[in-house]
Amino acid sequence: MVELPGVDPMWSTYLDVPSTAAVDPDGTVNRWHYLDNLPSLVGETRGTLLCVHGNPTWSYLWRTLLAAGARQGWRVVAVDQLEMGLSERSGRKRRLADRIRDLEDFTGALRLRGPLVTVGHDWGGVVSLGFADRNREDLAAVVLTNTAIHQDPNAPIPAPLRLALNGAVHRLGTSTTPAFLETTLALARPRLSPEVRAAYREPYRTASRRRGIEQFVADIPVGPAHPSHAELTRIAGNIRTLDVPVLMLWGPEDPIFSDTYLNDLTRRLPQADVHRFEGAGHLVAEDRDIAAPIFDWLGDRESISGAKVPACASAGSFTPLWQQIRDRGTGDSASTPAVADMGTDGEVARLLSWRELDHRVSRLAAGLHRIGVRSGSRVSLMVPPGVELTVLIYACLRLGAVIVLADAGLGAKGLSRAVRGTVPDFLVGIERALVAARVFGWPGTRISAGPVPASRARLLGVTHHLSDLSGGSSAYQGADPSPDSDAAILFTSGSTGPAKGVVYTHRQLSAMRDTLAVTLGLTPGSALVAGFAPFALLGPALGASSVTPAMDVTAPGTLTARALSDAAAAIEATTVFASPAALRNVLATAADITPRGGQALRRIKILLSAGAPIPSSLLEELQALVPSASLHTPYGMTEALPVTDIDREGIRKAAALPVPGTGNGVCVGSAVPAAEICISALDSSGAASGTPTTKPGVTGEILVRAPHVKDRYFRLWLTERESSRTAGWHRTGDVGHLDRDGRLWVEGRLAHVITSASGVLTPVGPEQAIEKLDAVRQAAMVGVGPAGTQAAVAVVVPADGGKASGLAPTGLADSVRQALSMGGLSPAAVLTLPALPTDVRHNAKIDRAAVAKWAADVLEGRGRKAP
Amino acid sequence: MKVLVTGASGMLGGAVASRLVRDGHTVRTFQRRPSGVPGAVDVAGDLGDRAGLLRVVSGMEGVIHLAAKVSFTGNPADFRRINVDGTADLLDAARAAGVERFVQVSSPSVAHTGDSLVGAAAEPANPQRVHGAYAQTKAQSEILALAADGRDLAVAAVRPHIVWGPGDAQLVERVLSRARVGRLPLLSGGTALVDTTYVDNAATAIVAALARMEYVHGQALVVTNGEPRPIGELLARICAAGGVPEPQRSVPGWLGRFAGSAVETFWRGTHADGEPPMTRFLAEQLSTAHWFDQRRTRELLDWTPSIPLDDGFARLAAHYGGRA
């Protein structure tokens, strides 16, 4: 064998295997090539991984598993299927059933016994599943990477495959020329190195060597008439009873094995742990390190016996989210306002009483059920906040369907990624969303939220209209969903990488409602202006009348003072939920408030600003607008809302009366009722490795435990494992410390910690010190250079609106250094930018990673455009 | 300890000798001109004189070797004779005289080629890859010195990066003289992050290497203040200390692109003494990042710089203020 990068030559082995496959004449012996890390193993073997490649790769695909397995005591055997790789070319057309029998012949000849873990990719996934199904006594676990077991007869075959199967193209593309091979290799992201490409080409240098590729493509069971169709269907059905752990590692950017196939597999193997590597593609084993997660996962399976530690006692009282709608809809206040939308004219555009809301929810639930929405169905809701969305949400929850909510603020690309990744069964959208669904090919039965003409409905693939579905006369009578079943997938803002889906159960959402009610003292009958989505949706669950102000929800900065005050006046609101960006614009447009609106604002008792940090100067200005309101600035994240709460008075007290632990960060208050906070201290490399503690002044990752913390991330097994590695706690990825009185001070993101030679630095404290300077509007502290010896750099936006980016003028640099020296910090450089990059959703969180990248380039002596 | 310091008439050599005297050591110096270090015994001589070397190391327990041909241009043979042959002969003499400790004062330029260095570790010296006769011969001499490390004679190399201080003719005086006539170029906007070493800190680090020989022998350690700064800020602060206007920030893009050669030409054309004061080598130093990971150095030497950059600039200002 030629030398192959990443492969120990000792692993390459040949074995003569007597065949029992139907395709081979009696007495046939086939020569197999396989990679086996047995020679590299020392000590006891924990088990064996049997790796099956697809078409047109070969055992080389699994080299990282062989290396990592050898280090961790796992034997890894990666075969070259017959006609493929360096195995024998018999010249016979092998069908799926032959290939499964081949694998059994091979493992028999090698005397491979359990515990066995099958690992498959592409059509090797099918072969490995067929083998797993028939050899259950030895089977310990199943690992799958981009593959498929079932083709929906009503869905089109992926275009690239249709092309390869086309009679005229087929032979030319697969064996006569290496086009199929080269196309597959080109799917790697990032590109494969020339050495690795050469290794993949090695067994397929000539047309005759490539005949197996052609025949493999020809064996894809495209329809019921195909000879392998029955076998595929049998396996697809049988695996539903596989009771071993399953891990699926997926590259979503795969033109063939898209999320649709992943989704099908998870329905058949619901126990599967799934991780989608955002940005990776078909050759996920090349695109990402899959070896480490596989062995971590296998290790976890060995050490813990099944059940995950519940985040909190899952028993206890539980009131369904729709209870208040039901109670109030049939009670004394049935005719009072429940939900309302404001029009741009300052008047109420749409209003439902509690009775109407109750009716609409149960009618729509019945209508949705009629068209096939069931408990566990995923329904993507792409409807702006307001009456319609409220009815939809509660109808879905009532049915036990799982709502998928992604913020339109993610932008077309981010939204598309989120929707495709969740593979909704149904998609309810306004026309704009339906157009996007059509353009980007989002999956799911399409339901139009608004009126759409018939011709347009056909064009957009709309099969149902919301108005038809809620028009029925019968109420939904089905059983309530179980409290511990999935209720919602909410997407994060994506300010720290691709947006992540966060799964909540009914019990957890109800706990979020209860926490909010206790924290803010919201009782049934209160009235709120809903300008901040996640909390606003809980209005009806709280028994509170809620009104949505007239604004473009994709841009919080479009909420005007007039719109806010009109909405408050319309329902005599006592509470306002909004984001800092919205409140900033409210202040900017305060002059337009009408006398009636001004009066309504003076009645506000609670104003809650959530979603991003808010500067205290802004709070002061706001107080003038809502003089009787207590201003709350809770801290939380999509995974846990809220974690802490504090009001303006509390912030003032925290600053005025220092206790041990005061300072170096933003004070976000104490844990909300039912929530606990602890800190996992940072080590010198910036990793949060400390044993969780509540000791004041210890800086580390913030951990939270509460009944309203998320259940898990959606199809992000690795991310979930990291976030819940302290059993029972959610690791937030934020850093901070507690003070003596139990208040939390947030110091920034874990990923933004600066690891200098003299110790670990967190960004928020120094940024606050710099921002006290009159000459500075905004600041970001970042680290450049290798971890452990990073140089701290202050990047500031000058208050004078200067457009220069680069070295700060000496005077400004001196004042910044002066401001930081009080905290004992001496930055390596002070740079200026005209503006700092921020997240798309709240336009408030500084993207320090982008700032750091820019600063690193500039300080290396390379000019670079501002981020 | 009885210690010989070669090259003590220079700024750093003088600082090392002074530090040793202050610490109570018996200090002998060796160079062509008087060292001017009170309390040290000067022996005049040349590295090319083997017999002289043998005489001057006799009775010494430690040697700190700073003498070298430091220049941006010149005849390669001269560099070889002084930096390579001179070091080899001094090592031989030290071994013959029973010297126990030998500190070779080297330069970070022995290991890199002009690429940017960001939090870099001390890589092995590489004469084949570095630019210019100075760096090449210093790389060769460092290899010779570290190869001589053995049971009887322990050898370590210390590489201070851009040493400066009051009376420094290499960097400070040149910067000030250019700035005085308003022609100090700054490449790429002067943002490259550069480590420097205030002279007293370089001296204490070198003395620490002698004392901590059991931990550092056979190794090369980069020494800096551990406070990298953008070159533009450094030059501005040198100018401020010297009482001259700070340099222009913006430089035409073409000048940045042709960094080394453009500056070389620029400087050559304006100096009459025949030696361009700044060549591609220095241009590289001033236009790309050059800063180092100091953790290992500080741990092995059990040393930290006692003069922070800001104190160094204050001393520089006092120096020039005193003279004015």
TrEMBL record, chain A:
<keyword id="KW-0436">Ligase</keyword>
<feature type="domain" description="AMP-dependent synthetase/ligase">
    <location>
        <begin position="349"/>
        <end position="714"/>
    </location>
</feature>
<dbReference type="InterPro" id="IPR000873">
    <property type="entry name" value="AMP-dep_synth/lig_dom"/>
</dbReference>
<comment type="similarity">
    <text>Belongs to the ATP-dependent AMP-binding enzyme family.</text>
</comment>
<dbReference type="InterPro" id="IPR000073">
    <property type="entry name" value="AB_hydrolase_1"/>
</dbReference>
<dbReference type="GO" id="GO:0006631">
    <property type="term" value="P:fatty acid metabolic process"/>
</dbReference>
<dbReference type="InterPro" id="IPR029058">
    <property type="entry name" value="AB_hydrolase_fold"/>
</dbReference>
<protein>
    <submittedName>
        <fullName>Acyl-CoA synthetase (AMP-forming)/AMP-acid ligase II</fullName>
    </submittedName>
</protein>
<dbReference type="Pfam" id="PF00561">
    <property type="entry name" value="Abhydrolase_1"/>
</dbReference>
<feature type="domain" description="AB hydrolase-1">
    <location>
        <begin position="48"/>
        <end position="288"/>
    </location>
</feature>
<dbReference type="GO" id="GO:0031956">
    <property type="term" value="F:medium-chain fatty acid-CoA ligase activity"/>
</dbReference>
<dbReference type="Pfam" id="PF00501">
    <property type="entry name" value="AMP-binding"/>
</dbReference>
<dbReference type="InterPro" id="IPR042099">
    <property type="entry name" value="ANL_N_sf"/>
</dbReference>
<dbReference type="InterPro" id="IPR045851">
    <property type="entry name" value="AMP-bd_C_sf"/>
</dbReference>
<dbReference type="InterPro" id="IPR020845">
    <property type="entry name" value="AMP-binding_CS"/>
</dbReference>
Automatic annotation (TrEMBL), chain B:
<dbReference type="InterPro" id="IPR051783">
    <property type="entry name" value="NAD(P)-dependent_oxidoreduct"/>
</dbReference>
<dbReference type="Pfam" id="PF01370">
    <property type="entry name" value="Epimerase"/>
</dbReference>
<dbReference type="InterPro" id="IPR036291">
    <property type="entry name" value="NAD(P)-bd_dom_sf"/>
</dbReference>
<dbReference type="InterPro" id="IPR001509">
    <property type="entry name" value="Epimerase_deHydtase"/>
</dbReference>
<feature type="domain" description="NAD-dependent epimerase/dehydratase">
    <location>
        <begin position="3"/>
        <end position="220"/>
    </location>
</feature>
<protein>
    <submittedName>
        <fullName>Nucleoside-diphosphate-sugar epimerase</fullName>
    </submittedName>
</protein>
<dbReference type="GO" id="GO:0005737">
    <property type="term" value="C:cytoplasm"/>
</dbReference>
<dbReference type="GO" id="GO:0004029">
    <property type="term" value="F:aldehyde dehydrogenase (NAD+) activity"/>
</dbReference>
